[in-house]
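Title: Prediction job returns without error message
Component: structure pipeline
Severity: low
Priority: P3
Assignee: unassigned

Description:
Job completed but the reporter wants confirmation the result is attached to the right record. Sequence as submitted:
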Amino acid sequence: AANTDIRQDPVAGTEVPTGSAVNLTVSSGPPTVEIPEVRNVAVAEAQATLEGLGLVVETKEVHNANVAAGDAIKTAPAAGASVARGSPVTMNVSKGPKPVVVPHVLGVKKGAATTAITDTGLVVGSEETVEDPAARNTVIAQDPAPGGQADKNSTVDITVSSGPPQIVVPEVRDVAAAEA
């Protein structure tokens, strides 16, 4: 421990004349190391660096949208702190962005569906328009399926109805009723 006598000269039990000097060596404490910055470093490399300094590393996986999955986010104690060799250090490791729940937009008008998708943190991907008995501009299919989980900023593809198929009404004026 710091401020503890760890050595003396002459050693204990040695006879010396009264008034002689006794030299003491006082501990400054256990050797310390400075915790390095490991943000955005691959977990294996960050752990090897910390363990190479004599630290005991515990990892904790957490979601983080700004650090790639599998990379270190931060340590506790923080980078720059001086700690004794052998001290425990917790290293947070990114699991990537927190997944979001895909909204249910089937049967919803295209504008409201787009808003629901973007409000969730997702992006409207491809949009296909097909003839369908559903009302015009209504979402009739989506991928991924509603209620599932997706990474934030990933896409949701939608299929929108252009309305029921249209037919051309033929000219029937001056045509016999049975034939018309």
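Comment from assignee: result matches the submitted record. DSSP finds two helices and twelve strands in the chain.
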